[in-house]
Structures are given as structure tokens and as C-alpha cells.
Design a protein that fits this description.
Elements (H helix, E strand, L loop, with lengths): L9 H17 L3 E5 L13 E6 L2 H8 L9 E5 L2 E7 L15 H10 L5 E5 L6 E5 L2 E5 L2 H12 L1
Parallel strand pairs: 1-3
Antiparallel strand pairs: 1-5, 2-4, 3-4, 5-6, 6-7
Helix pairs in contact: 1-2, 1-4
Length: about 150
Amino acid sequence: MRKSRISIKKETITNIVKSCGILSGDKTGGLIVIQMDQELEDFIQNGDEMDAKVNIPILESIFYKNSPLHDGAVIIIENKIIKTRAILPLSYNNEIPSRLGLRHRAAIGLSEKVDAICIVISEETGYISYIKNQKRNIIKNMNHLKIKLEKDLL
């Protein structure tokens, strides 16, 4: 387990995991950023302010394809959603496979600058990518996602 200045509750991790499972099953695209030790402020000055406890209905409704909030990233700091529609810096790394879209490029781009965790749900495949420290891991099942988040956040 890691020791950090951030404080994430198990309930928050559970809500993120369940939301990702729902979005993946529906092939609803999404990008969730979880702040770790480094501040995200310099990279998220855009988007819409929010102050909401992380919960399944809110995350589902944000990424619903007809929602005005669905484009861009959701930013989570500790146990709150603090931004929606955040535009992240893109990676221009030529080694990123061309089949990966802007959400993946944005997640990798942010991970080139800070230690945040980025979770990308593909709207084409429903696959979930876990991006941290410029490395992308495919999530095989929701328990795998839960284990990774608990290891990195608790």
C-alpha cells in the first residue's frame, strides 16, 4: 500500500469501478482523471466546475452521449468530482497506436506531465485502459480495476 497526502475512500473506488463497468458494458466513452500527489491545476483550468461526491448516477449521466458534459475528462480530487469537460494536454508520442483516439492521447499526455491516474473507456470497443506514468494497461475485468485503484490510492 502507498502513503500519500491524498485521501480516497474505498466507497469512492467502488463507485468509480462500478461506473466504469456500466460505461464499458454500454460502450459509452469516458475519461476519468484521479489526482494523485501532483497538482492538476495547471492542466485543468478549462472545463466546468463541479462539486459533487463521486457516485454512480452522476458519472453515468456525465458520460451519457447526449449529455452536454460528456466530452472531455472528469477530474476527481480525493472523493469529489471537481470538473467536467476538462480538456487535457495531448501526447504526440509516435509510439501510441493509431487505433487509439483522442481520449487515450489526452490521458497519456496528462500522464507525461503529472502522476495522475487516467481511466479511459472506449466507445468503440468498451475496453477500459488504465493509464499511469505513461503506461497503458488494458483492464481485463472490474476486479482487476478495483485491485489497481486500491493499490495506487489506498
